[in-house]
């Protein structure tokens, strides 16, 4: 089932690429997609109708045109028609697809301005600050008080002067739509997507002290060899590790920290 969904997402991204290549206002397109994803998420009847396998693709496209045509730009309508023509076995997958397309469109606009790597680094820096500041992290997540819009405004007041417009837009989106306190994982997904669009795998490395350029390059080569792919390496410092490093990408982790080895030794001695 997930393979079908992934294939549909690839087709949806291909449709987005066609829209972007057509001289569209890409940030306007992104805003439209975010808005439509919210509508689809909160309107179960509309969501089911737009994914109803009992309707023909043409009928679903006509419904999308009727529902959204007066509220979004022509490029958005054309893109959504292509998206709803696909077979979505889970109606909520349509919401996910529109959300992913909004994120991708924002990153595409950054890429067109030569700022895609900057956006990735900015979002990573925000996530690292939030790792260290639990109170702020919770205030910006759905575990905190306030509406999603209020939390997004708080994020803009704090980070707005320091971020590009693309990173800030994604941060607002992540803060406003994070569920169950998973803000850090949401920001990581944004970073992973930005890296992927540059043909790289997003990798984080934690070390007990700042890495030298030589050490970073060595770890970059190690990660690339292990993954069989060039990587975007993002380093952070965690003194509690004592020594060594911890690499992470997706579900893969390489842990050679002293703190982990000490913990393993303690466990071995108690058994």
UniProtKB/TrEMBL annotation:
Transmembrane segments: none annotated. It is a peripheral membrane protein. InterPro entries: ATPase_OSCP/d_CS, ATPase_OSCP/dsu. Its main location: membrane. Keywords: ATP synthesis, Cell membrane, CF(1), Hydrogen ion transport, Ion transport, Membrane, Transport. The keyword ATP-binding does not apply. It is found in: Cell membrane; Membrane. It comes from the Bacteria. PROSITE patterns: ATPASE_DELTA. Belongs to the ATPase delta chain family. F(1)F(0) ATP synthase produces ATP from ADP in the presence of a proton or sodium gradient. F-type ATPases consist of two structural domains, F(1) containing the extramembraneous catalytic core and F(0) containing the membrane proton channel, linked together by a central stalk and a peripheral stalk. During catalysis, ATP synthesis in the catalytic domain of F(1) is coupled via a rotary mechanism of the central stalk subunits to proton translocation. This is ATP synthase subunit delta. It comes from Schaalia naturae.
């Amino acid at each position: 089932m997930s393979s079908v969904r992934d294939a549909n997402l690839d087709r949806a991204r291909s449709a987005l690429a066609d829209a972007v290549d057509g001289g569209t206002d890409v940030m306007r397109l992104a805003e439209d997609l975010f808005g439509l994803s919210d509508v689809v998420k909160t309107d179960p009847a509309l969501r089911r109708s737009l994914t109803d396998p009992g309707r023909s693709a043409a009928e679903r496209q006509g419904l999308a045109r009727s529902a959204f045509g007066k509220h979004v730009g022509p490029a958005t309508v054309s893109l959504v028609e292509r998206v709803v023509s696909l077979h979505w076995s889970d109606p909520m997958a349509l919401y996910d697809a529109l959300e992913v397309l909004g994120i991708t469109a924002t990153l595409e606009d950054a890429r067109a301005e030569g700022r895609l790597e900057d956006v990735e680094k900015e979002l990573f820096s925000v996530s690292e600050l939030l790792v260290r500041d639990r109170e702020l992290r919770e205030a910006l997540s759905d575990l905190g008080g306030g509406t999603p819009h209020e939390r997004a405004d708080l994020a803009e007041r704090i980070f707005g002067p320091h971020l590009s417009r693309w990173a800030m837009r994604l941060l607002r989106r992540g803060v406003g739509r994070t569920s169950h306190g998973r803000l850090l994982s949401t920001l990581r997904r944004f970073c992973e997507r930005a890296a992927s669009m540059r043909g790289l795998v997003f990798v984080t490395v934690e070390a007990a002290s700042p890495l030298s350029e030589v050490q970073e390059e060595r770890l970059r080569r190690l990660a690339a060899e292990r993954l069989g792919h060039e990587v975007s390496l993002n380093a952070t410092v965690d003194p509690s590790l004592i020594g060594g490093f911890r690499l992470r990408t997706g579900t893969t982790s390489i842990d050679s920290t002293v703190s982990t080895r000490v913990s393993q030794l303690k466990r071995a001695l108690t058994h």
